[in-house]
Amino acid sequence: MNKLNTIKISGVGLPLYVVLVLILTVTIWMGKLPLNMLGITFMLVLLGHLFYWIGQKTPFFNTYLGGGSVMTLLLAALLNSLRIMPKTVVQATAAFMQDWGFLDFYIAALICGAILGMNRNLLVRASARFIPISLATMVIGFFATGGMGVLLGQGFSHSVLYISMAQMAGGMGAGIVPLSKIYASQLHVPAGDILNHLAPATTLGNLFAIIGAIFIAKAFAKTKYNGHGVLIEVNKEELERPHLTLDATKIGVGLMFAFGLFLIGVILNAFVPKIHSYAFMIIIVFILKATDTVPKALQDCVVMFNQVVMTNLTHAVLAGIGLAMMDLSKLAQAMTWQFLILSLTSVVAMGLASWFLGKIFGLFPVETAIGAGMINNSMGGTGNIAVLSAADRMEMIAFAQMANRLGGAIILILGGILIQLFS
């Protein structure tokens, strides 16, 4: 027993962890799992840490296939696809992730902590180069996918409208859902029918982006092209982060400040619906950091909150994404060889473009290819987390969200114009 206790899953000894899993299993089997914050949080945290641990301990998978992050997504998705998890629990998880705001909770903590915890000069210098690269990469991906569509006999318009733009739209809720409504209003068909055409590309693009990010991070780990999570060449002082001793009261202060900034984004989104709340929040936090407006003590509070959330909830978020937001059956139905090639074309073209543009603009190519190329093919906030977690680049979440939300807003505007031209 003592030997088993030395095996720990996220700080919990293996015997106790087995007991907790048995409690969860029995509760679900009896149909008594509370479908509220308590029940769903317990389930996602427990399964997320377990699946991540399995992925990190599985040979070959932990080295070449994304390890814990990808294993968490895959096993959680299989629980739904194989009908192991009751439908009521899956539906409650979907509501918890999106309608109840669990993702907002997580992403608000990540964005605010990532930006406020970054060196101010580094943030300003990197952003000035990263944003143009991200937008240029999207243009290249758009035409590369359309061109490949022509070569494969799928047509330029179909390839860009239903694959390229679906992958670059910024995910589900803020991406292909509004995009499907835009298409439907022009085509005079139900938005749900359009959504079924867009969703497989969004899902597959995200999977390819995860694989691509892992490949880039592993293949160039020991080269001069690797910035180890930092976009631009920096001196030692710019990378240094003071050690923070966690304080319960200060963590609460960080929570309030981060959520207050998120709500300002919500208010601004009400006046300008085309720009997502996340995008507004990024802009606000960026301005506050660039102008050195937030006192150092308050910044430390937000960074503490960020550390607590990242440490304890990242694997739970991945489990929730896999369980409630990845439909493997729909993906399998759309899996023609032409579809695979077109989806892969977008990821590869944008990865290569951002790599070389990053090199030209003086950014580390590995980080640029992941942050601009792979991220712009991901499923918005959830996809960003999956891609960055798999590549061990979570410190880039602010840049990832910046690229994804800005690019997604542009795609929605462009979609309204192109559907009129191509329909």
Could you characterize what this model shows?
It is a single chain. The chain is mostly helical and 423 residues long. The protein folds into 2 domains: 2-99, no CATH class; 102-422, no CATH class. The protein is 77% helix and 1% strand. The chain is built from 20 helices and 2 strands. Strands 1-2 form a two-stranded antiparallel ribbon. Strand 1 and strand 2 form a beta hairpin. The longest helix is centred in the first third of the chain and has 32 residues, at 120-151. It is globular, with a radius of gyration of 21 Å. It starts with a helix and ends with a helix. The mean pLDDT is 85.
Features:
2 domains, mainly alpha, 2 strands, 423 residues, globular, two-stranded antiparallel ribbon, 20 helices
Quick summary:
By secondary structure, the chain is mainly alpha-helical. The protein has helices at 2-5, 14-29, 37-57, 61-64, 67-81, 87-99, 102-116, 120-151, 156-168, 172-187, 191-219, 236-239, 248-271, 277-290, 296-325, 328-333, 337-360, 365-374, 380-390, 397-422, and strands at 8-9, 12-13.
